[in-house]
Protein backbone atom coordinates (compact mmCIF):
# COMPACT_ATOMS: atom_id res chain seq x y z
CA UNK A 1 0.00 0.00 0.00
CA UNK A 2 1.76 3.17 -1.22
CA UNK A 3 -0.32 5.26 1.20
CA UNK A 4 0.51 3.44 4.42
CA UNK A 5 3.26 5.89 5.34
CA UNK A 6 1.15 8.98 4.73
CA UNK A 7 1.83 11.67 7.30
CA UNK A 8 0.54 15.10 8.16
CA UNK A 9 2.67 17.82 6.60
CA UNK A 10 0.94 21.17 7.00
CA UNK A 11 -2.35 23.05 6.96
CA UNK A 12 -2.67 26.04 4.63
CA UNK A 13 -5.11 28.86 5.37
CA UNK A 14 -4.17 30.86 2.32
CA UNK A 15 -2.20 30.71 -0.92
CA UNK A 16 1.14 31.72 0.66
CA UNK A 17 1.10 28.75 3.01
CA UNK A 18 0.86 26.13 0.25
CA UNK A 19 3.93 23.92 -0.28
CA UNK A 20 5.98 24.63 -3.43
CA UNK A 21 3.99 23.80 -6.54
CA UNK A 22 6.33 21.27 -8.11
CA UNK A 23 4.97 17.82 -7.44
CA UNK A 24 1.86 15.68 -7.73
CA UNK A 25 -1.20 15.97 -5.55
CA UNK A 26 -4.73 14.62 -5.36
CA UNK A 27 -7.41 16.61 -3.55
CA UNK A 28 -10.28 15.16 -1.52
CA UNK A 29 -13.51 17.12 -1.19
CA UNK A 30 -16.81 16.32 0.44
CA UNK A 31 -19.65 17.82 2.39
CA UNK A 32 -19.18 17.70 6.15
CA UNK A 33 -20.05 14.31 7.53
CA UNK A 34 -19.99 12.60 4.12
CA UNK A 35 -17.21 10.30 5.34
CA UNK A 36 -14.11 11.99 3.88
CA UNK A 37 -11.91 11.51 6.96
CA UNK A 38 -12.92 7.87 7.21
CA UNK A 39 -12.13 7.40 3.51
CA UNK A 40 -8.67 8.97 3.88
CA UNK A 41 -7.99 6.82 6.92
CA UNK A 42 -9.08 3.66 5.08
CA UNK A 43 -7.03 4.59 2.01
CA UNK A 44 -3.92 4.97 4.17
CA UNK A 45 -4.76 2.17 6.62
CA UNK A 46 -4.38 4.59 9.51
CA UNK A 47 -6.92 5.14 12.23
CA UNK A 48 -6.33 8.78 12.99
CA UNK A 49 -4.66 10.32 9.94
CA UNK A 50 -7.55 12.63 9.22
CA UNK A 51 -9.44 13.32 12.41
CA UNK A 52 -12.82 11.67 12.07
CA UNK A 53 -14.67 14.14 14.20
CA UNK A 54 -13.83 17.76 13.63
CA UNK A 55 -14.93 21.06 15.08
CA UNK A 56 -16.79 23.38 12.71
CA UNK A 57 -14.52 26.30 11.84
CA UNK A 58 -11.32 24.35 12.41
CA UNK A 59 -11.82 22.61 9.10
CA UNK A 60 -11.30 25.77 7.05
CA UNK A 61 -7.89 24.88 5.70
CA UNK A 62 -6.19 22.73 3.08
CA UNK A 63 -4.46 19.89 4.91
CA UNK A 64 -1.48 18.32 3.14
CA UNK A 65 -0.35 14.76 3.81
CA UNK A 66 3.04 13.68 2.50
CA UNK A 67 3.62 10.22 1.05
CA UNK A 68 7.16 9.11 1.94
CA UNK A 69 9.44 8.04 0.40
CA UNK A 70 8.07 10.23 -2.39
CA UNK A 71 8.95 13.88 -2.16
CA UNK A 72 6.41 16.36 -3.43
CA UNK A 73 3.55 13.87 -3.65
CA UNK A 74 0.60 14.77 -1.49
CA UNK A 75 -2.94 13.98 -0.56
CA UNK A 76 -4.84 17.21 0.10
CA UNK A 77 -7.86 17.28 2.40
CA UNK A 78 -10.06 20.18 1.29
CA UNK A 79 -12.29 21.93 3.84
CA UNK A 80 -15.56 20.20 4.49
CA UNK A 81 -18.64 22.20 3.86
CA UNK A 82 -22.20 22.36 4.98
CA UNK A 83 -22.03 23.86 8.45
CA UNK A 84 -24.54 26.70 8.55
CA UNK A 85 -22.42 28.30 11.29
CA UNK A 86 -19.59 29.36 8.98
CA UNK A 87 -19.83 33.14 8.63
CA UNK A 88 -20.52 34.65 5.22
CA UNK A 89 -17.12 36.37 4.82
CA UNK A 90 -15.29 33.15 5.70
CA UNK A 91 -17.26 31.39 3.01
CA UNK A 92 -16.25 34.07 0.50
CA UNK A 93 -12.60 33.69 1.53
CA UNK A 94 -12.87 29.93 1.07
CA UNK A 95 -14.56 30.16 -2.25
CA UNK A 96 -11.77 32.46 -3.50
CA UNK A 97 -8.99 30.31 -2.05
CA UNK A 98 -10.45 27.12 -3.49
CA UNK A 99 -11.08 28.64 -6.90
CA UNK A 100 -7.52 29.96 -6.95
CA UNK A 101 -6.15 26.58 -5.90
CA UNK A 102 -8.13 24.67 -8.52
CA UNK A 103 -7.47 27.26 -11.17
CA UNK A 104 -3.72 27.58 -10.84
CA UNK A 105 -2.19 24.66 -8.95
CA UNK A 106 0.03 22.78 -11.41
CA UNK A 107 0.62 19.88 -9.03
CA UNK A 108 -3.07 19.05 -8.83
CA UNK A 109 -3.66 15.86 -10.86
CA UNK A 110 -7.11 14.79 -9.83
CA UNK A 111 -10.04 15.30 -7.48
CA UNK A 112 -11.85 12.75 -5.34
CA UNK A 113 -15.33 13.83 -4.27
CA UNK A 114 -16.74 11.97 -1.29
CA UNK A 115 -20.53 11.71 -1.17
CA UNK A 116 -22.84 9.89 1.22
CA UNK A 117 -24.48 7.23 -0.99
CA UNK A 118 -27.83 8.26 0.51
CA UNK A 119 -27.38 11.96 -0.45
CA UNK A 120 -25.34 12.14 -3.66
CA UNK A 121 -24.64 15.07 -5.98
CA UNK A 122 -25.61 18.02 -3.82
CA UNK A 123 -24.80 21.56 -4.89
CA UNK A 124 -21.36 21.59 -3.21
CA UNK A 125 -20.43 18.33 -4.95
CA UNK A 126 -21.38 19.74 -8.34
CA UNK A 127 -19.42 22.90 -7.61
CA UNK A 128 -16.26 20.92 -6.80
CA UNK A 129 -16.68 18.76 -9.91
CA UNK A 130 -17.19 21.95 -11.90
CA UNK A 131 -13.87 23.36 -10.65
CA UNK A 132 -12.08 20.18 -11.76
CA UNK A 133 -13.80 20.13 -15.13
CA UNK A 134 -12.92 23.75 -15.84
CA UNK A 135 -9.26 22.84 -15.39
CA UNK A 136 -9.61 19.65 -17.44
CA UNK A 137 -8.77 17.54 -14.36
CA UNK A 138 -10.15 14.03 -13.93
CA UNK A 139 -12.46 13.43 -10.98
CA UNK A 140 -13.51 10.30 -9.13
CA UNK A 141 -16.63 10.08 -6.99
CA UNK A 142 -16.83 7.70 -4.07
CA UNK A 143 -20.31 6.94 -2.75
CA UNK A 144 -19.55 6.25 0.90
CA UNK A 145 -21.44 4.46 3.65
CA UNK A 146 -22.47 1.86 1.06
CA UNK A 147 -22.80 -0.52 4.04
CA UNK A 148 -25.86 1.49 5.09
CA UNK A 149 -27.78 0.38 1.99
CA UNK A 150 -28.62 -3.08 0.74
CA UNK A 151 -26.68 -4.28 -2.29
CA UNK A 152 -29.61 -3.68 -4.63
CA UNK A 153 -30.23 -0.13 -3.45
CA UNK A 154 -26.52 0.73 -3.50
CA UNK A 155 -26.19 -0.66 -7.03
CA UNK A 156 -29.19 1.34 -8.20
CA UNK A 157 -27.75 4.53 -6.75
CA UNK A 158 -24.40 3.82 -8.40
CA UNK A 159 -26.08 3.46 -11.78
CA UNK A 160 -28.19 6.58 -11.34
CA UNK A 161 -25.20 8.69 -10.27
CA UNK A 162 -23.09 7.29 -13.11
CA UNK A 163 -25.74 8.33 -15.63
CA UNK A 164 -26.15 11.77 -14.12
CA UNK A 165 -22.37 12.34 -14.09
CA UNK A 166 -22.10 11.27 -17.73
CA UNK A 167 -24.86 13.73 -18.64
CA UNK A 168 -23.33 16.65 -16.72
CA UNK A 169 -19.60 16.02 -17.06
CA UNK A 170 -19.11 13.65 -20.02
CA UNK A 171 -16.68 10.83 -19.23
CA UNK A 172 -14.03 12.63 -17.17
CA UNK A 173 -15.70 11.60 -13.90
CA UNK A 174 -15.69 8.00 -12.64
CA UNK A 175 -17.72 6.69 -9.71
CA UNK A 176 -17.65 3.76 -7.30
CA UNK A 177 -19.26 2.48 -4.13
CA UNK A 178 -17.21 2.75 -0.94
CA UNK A 179 -17.38 2.00 2.75
CA UNK A 180 -14.87 3.05 5.36
CA UNK A 181 -16.70 0.66 7.67
CA UNK A 182 -16.58 -2.57 5.61
CA UNK A 183 -13.61 -1.41 3.47
CA UNK A 184 -15.63 -2.09 0.33
CA UNK A 185 -14.02 -0.28 -2.61
CA UNK A 186 -10.78 0.67 -0.86
CA UNK A 187 -8.57 -1.10 -3.43
CA UNK A 188 -10.43 0.55 -6.29
CA UNK A 189 -9.96 4.01 -4.76
CA UNK A 190 -6.30 3.30 -4.05
CA UNK A 191 -5.68 2.31 -7.67
CA UNK A 192 -7.25 5.51 -9.01
CA UNK A 193 -5.34 7.82 -6.66
CA UNK A 194 -2.03 5.97 -7.09
CA UNK A 195 -2.44 6.21 -10.85
CA UNK A 196 -2.92 9.97 -10.72
CA UNK A 197 0.09 10.37 -8.44
CA UNK A 198 2.20 8.00 -10.56
CA UNK A 199 3.20 5.91 -7.55
P1 LIG B 1 -16.22 13.81 7.20
O1 LIG B 1 -16.85 14.94 7.95
O2 LIG B 1 -16.64 13.81 5.77
O3 LIG B 1 -14.73 13.72 7.36
O4 LIG B 1 -16.87 12.47 7.77
P2 LIG B 1 -16.29 11.41 8.82
O5 LIG B 1 -15.31 10.51 8.15
O6 LIG B 1 -15.86 12.13 10.05
O7 LIG B 1 -17.62 10.55 9.10
C1 LIG B 1 -18.80 11.14 9.58
C2 LIG B 1 -19.60 10.08 10.32
O8 LIG B 1 -19.99 9.05 9.42
C3 LIG B 1 -18.82 9.39 11.42
O9 LIG B 1 -19.72 9.11 12.47
C4 LIG B 1 -18.33 8.11 10.78
O10 LIG B 1 -18.14 7.08 11.71
C5 LIG B 1 -19.46 7.78 9.83
N1 LIG B 1 -18.98 7.06 8.64
C6 LIG B 1 -18.01 7.44 7.79
N2 LIG B 1 -17.83 6.55 6.80
C7 LIG B 1 -18.71 5.55 7.04
C8 LIG B 1 -19.03 4.32 6.34
O11 LIG B 1 -18.47 3.97 5.31
N3 LIG B 1 -20.03 3.56 6.88
C9 LIG B 1 -20.69 3.93 8.00
N4 LIG B 1 -21.67 3.12 8.43
N5 LIG B 1 -20.43 5.07 8.66
C10 LIG B 1 -19.45 5.87 8.20
TrEMBL record:
- Function summary: Necessary for normal cell division and for the maintenance of normal septation.
Q: Which HAMAP family does the entry link to?
A: GTPase_EngB
Q: Give me the Gene Ontology terms describing cellular component.
A: cytosol
**Molecular-function GO terms, alphabetical:** GTP binding; metal ion binding
This protein's cofactor list reads:
Mg(2+)
Entry protein name = Probable GTP-binding protein EngB
GO terms of biological process kind = division septum assembly
Origin organism of this chain? Answer: Thermomonas fusca
Tell me which NCBIfam families the record gives. Answer: GTPase_YsxC
Any Pfam family the entry gives:
MMR_HSR1
Protein's gene? engB
